[in-house]
Amino acid sequence: MIFRLADRTRMENSEQQKAIDLEIEAIKVAEKEGRKLDIARHLEILSLRYMQQGDYSEAEAACMRALSIREEELGSEHLYLTMPLSVLCQVKEQKGNLEEAVTYCRRAIVIKKKWYGEEHPSVANSYFYIALLYKAQGMRKESHKLFKQALCIRKNIFEPGHPDRLVSIDSVYPRFIAFILKFVEFVRAIRKSSKTT
Questions:
Q1: How many domains is the chain partitioned into structurally?
Q2: Partner of 186 at 20 to 30 A CA spacing, among 16, 20, 85, 152?
Q3: Alpha helices in the chain (DSSP H)
Q4: For 57-81, how does the pLDDT look when each residue is reduced to its tens digit (9 = 90+)?
Q5: Are residues 50 and 16 in contact, defined by beta-carbon separation less than 8 angstroms?
């Protein structure tokens, strides 16, 4: 059993490396042919492959290059910039740079709002992600505000019973509230025990 698991892991690593090599080759071909937006697309895929391997420095470098190409070719407010911005947000989060992650995510939100409007699932997802980043930084008030904003958007755009609405409103928000209530109980218990000693 252990040997099969080790073999499977080696195979997966080998397959991941093959996928990386294929993307690098595709980038070289696109560079020779001068297809800049294809270069950016392959760089974005490459950055995701590097993230799967946990190589966040390479992922960041590939994604920064993709973002630069897209900005140069499409301008600084094009919808296609949201993909590399979202990947950079995840890379920064994995590297522990939560403030930088929020910056990239906020920039993506501005672009998404311009293209989609305020009430769109993609905008709600970005608010939700920033809320999680704020929560990880201990910024509970800001986190709660963005959770509510994301959930209100979903409530407004999806009919009752829609799976996306059920997932976000009926499971995420109650869990968040349950977490807050447990935290309050924990603080009360500590205060109570400190009064008795």
A1: 2
A2: 152
A3: 2-33, 36-53, 56-74, 82-94, 98-116, 121-136, 140-157, 163-165, 173-196
A4: 999 999 999 999 999 999 999 999 9
A5: no
Q: Which of 90, 125, 160 is the last residue of a domain?
A: 90
- Residue 138 resides in a domain: yes
146: which 2 tokens?
A: 């963005």
4 and 86 in a single domain? The answer is yes
Q: From 25, 55, 90, give the residue that closes a domain.
A: 90
Provide the residue range defining the domain that includes 143: 117-197
Determine the distance from the C-alpha atom of residue 25 to the mean position of all C-alpha atoms in its chain, rounded to a whole number: 27
**Angle of helix 173-196 relative to helix 140-157, nearest 10 degrees?**
150
Amino acid 171: pLDDT? 47
Give first-to-last CA distance, the chain, whole Å.
53
| pTM summary value | 0.74
Sole residue written with tokens 């994995």: 94
Tokens of 139: 């910024």
